[in-house]
Write a structure and sequence with these properties.
Elements: H1 10-16, H2 19-34, H3 38-53, H4 56-110, H5 115-129, H6 132-139, H7 143-153, H8 155-201, H9 204-209, H10 213-265, H11 271-293, H12 295-314, E1 331-338, E2 348-355, E3 360-364, H13 371-379, E4 385-391, E5 394-395, H14 401-404, E6 408-411, H15 422-426, H16 434-443, H17 447-451, H18 470-482, E7 488-492, H19 500-515, E8 519-523, E9 535-540, E10 543-549, H20 550-557, H21 564-567
Parallel strand pairs: 3-8, 3-9, 6-7, 7-8
Antiparallel strand pairs: 1-2, 1-4, 4-5, 9-10
Helix pairs in contact: 2-4, 3-4, 3-11, 4-5, 4-12, 5-12, 6-11, 7-8, 7-11, 8-10, 8-11, 8-12, 10-11, 16-18
């Protein structure tokens, strides 16, 4: 029974959409392979008619037909190659968005997923579709046809060609059995070595400052040496198999010629038929030889197909979600519990809390109390979570993420800026609205600072904002969070790297947001911004131990007269 189309994986379904193109490739392969018989027929006519009749006109006509059919054969091969290239490009174009989104989700959830591996897998599959391996797939079925033509010339040579084809297939099977695990093991070892270096380069500054290069290099040497050893073994085995396969092929071709010569000597075969049979034998074994030569790319693409198929199954294209006209900004937790892989005690333990719309909520608490995880749950980026996070009464998962993004401003504890201009980073790499960019910069007090850069807002900040100080990166990240005047702002330790002037600008920005009826959830260790709070939340060990109006919570924590600056505004 033919499997239902919708039972296939996303990757298989996408390949199935190109079935018409593959049928066309098969048709042009049919034309090209039929016309591969042209030199055989030419030889038979040369030895059978031209040499006997001595007619120059016959020779001319036969030669013209030969050139004409060669032209058609070349055109058919060019068309099928062009079709395969177009299939590869369209296959990539149809999947690159799915692969990007799936890799994005996988990295967000696992934090260890190698994003580049998925794109490398997609490239490997595309390249295999357009390379000799696919052509060998379409040419191999013609091997028995060529052998059938040899039977028409000589039964003995026909049976001999079957024997040689079986030997060639045996070599192909042996190549698969011996090389597959080696190729896969070498590729995995190489990926392990690459991932190790990639992970350490993310923390290059402490590695260099504390002289850890030598120790890390020794560990990398072990991984790299293991990768080289496996790659050397796999390549040595593959090349040995290819060399032996070539030896067998040339030997069989020569033996075919020798057997044909013996039959000519015995008068059982014409000389032209002998040469034609030898050419046909070469054509019959050529696809099988190509299969052996392209076995490594086939194994690699098969492995890549499996990895990509698994990735797209685990992280399918999500529903678009609801579209909303506006967002008031109320955030509600209902039984929210956040955990982490390998951790028995939850980071957040059954939290139930409401962050009212248009109010400033400040969250405080000791380290490891779950404050940053709380912030990540609010914006919907913490993967291992139970319970419901509601925005205006709707679960955050039900919102269209692209539509929701402009309504949320998020400043994480670890500021991550991107290679580009200051304006592009503030504008979240959307189309830069100069008025909104300048407004966000002024609200965070960095407008004058930006104007002192060589090219102002068009200054390139370098990879990860390398040309900026920690305080500048933090204030630029705050401006990015405030860009477009979002309804909800979640600020995780926004004053960690700020000096006094920066803290004053932050406090001014928070007060401005409160006056604009924005929902602000601010996480801090420092008391300078507590004075701007409407609501104060105190966390400890993943639980909320105090929550209420600022003055009441402060009085419960410290039953002393509050300082004037904390009671202002």
């Amino acid at each position: 029974m033919k499997p239902d189309f919708f039972d296939r994986s996303a990757l298989s379904r996408q390949l199935w959409t190109f079935r018409r193109e593959f049928i066309c490739v098969g048709v042009f392969s049919l034309i090209a392979n039929v016309l591969m018989l042209t030199p055989t027929l030419y030889m038979l006519h040369i030895y059978g008619r031209v040499m006997k009749s001595g007619s120059e006109l016959t020779l001319l006509m036969v030669t013209l037909f030969l050139i004409f059919f060669y032209g058609i054969m070349a055109f058919a091969e060019w068309i099928r190659s062009r079709l395969l290239v177009r299939v590869g490009v369209r296959f990539d174009e149809s999947l690159n968005s799915l692969v990007f989104n799936a890799s994005f989700k996988a990295y967000l959830i696992r934090c260890r997923h190698n994003v580049t591996e998925a794109f490398s897998d997609l490239t490997n599959i595309r390249q295999f579709l357009t390379a000799n391996g696919t052509i060998a797939f379409f040419d191999t079925p013609w091997t028995p046809i060529y052998i059938g033509v040899i039977f028409l010339l000589s039964h003995f040579l026909g049976w001999l060609s079957i024997l040689f084809a079986v030997i060639q297939l045996g070599l192909t099977w042996q190549s698969h059995r011996l090389s597959t695990k080696g190729i896969e093991g070498a590729a995995e070892a190489g990926n392990d070595s690459f991932r190790y270096v990639q992970n350490k380069l993310r923390n290059i500054e402490p590695v260099h400052a504390m002289g850890m290069e030598g120790n890390l290099q020794e560990r990398w040497f072990k991984l790299h040496d293991a990768s080289l050893a496996k790659a050397e073994l796999a390549l040595d085995r593959q090349h040995r198999q290819q060399a032996f396969a070539k030896f067998v092929r040339y030997t069989m071709q020569s033996l075919t010629l020798g057997a044909g010569a013996l039959m000519v000597i015995e008068g059982k075969m014409a000389a032209g038929s002998m040469i034609a049979a030898n050419v046909l034998m070469s054509k019959a074994l050529q696809p099988l030889d190509l299969v052996v030569a392209t076995w490594k790319p086939f194994v690699q693409s098969k492995k890549a197909f499996g990895r990509l198929e698994k990735l797209l199954e685990e992280f399918p294209e999500s529903n678009i979600g609801k579209k909303h006209q506006y967002l008031l900004g109320e955030v509600r937790f209902e039984g929210v519990t956040a955990t982490a892989n390998g951790r028995e005690i939850p980071i957040l333990d059954n939290l139930n809390i409401v962050f009212p719309a248009g109010r400033v909520t400040v969250v405080i608490g000791p380290s490891s109390s779950g404050k940053s995880t709380l912030a990540r749950c609010i914006v919907g980026v913490w993967p291992e979570r139970a319970g419901r996070v509601l925005l205006d009464g709707e679960t955050i998962e039900s919102w269209n993420r692209v539509d929701l993004g402009p309504h949320i401003g998020y400043l994480p504890q670890d500021i991550e800026l991107f290679d580009g201009t200051i304006a592009e980073n503030i504008a979240r790499f959307a189309t830069v609205d100069s008025e909104k960019v300048i407004e966000a910069a002024k609200r965070t007090g960095i407008h004058e600072m930006i104007l002192h850069f060589p090219r102002g807002y068009d200054t390139e900040i370098g990879e990860a904002g390398g040309m900026l100080s920690g305080g500048q990166r933090q204030r630029l990240g705050l401006a990015r969070a405030m860009y477009g005047n979002p309804e909800i702002l979640v600020l995780d330790e926004p004053n960690a790297n700020l000096d006094d002037a920066g803290e004053r600008s932050l406090l001014s920005a928070v007060l401005d947001l409160r006056n604009s009826s924005k929902t602000v959830i601010l996480i801090t260790h420092r008391p300078s911004v507590i004075g701007a709070a409407d609501i104060l939340v105190v966390m400890h060990s993943g639980k909320i131990i105090h929550c209420g109006p600022r003055d009441e919570v402060l009085a419960a924590l410290h039953p002393v007269i509050m300082q004037p600056e904390l009671s202002e505004n």
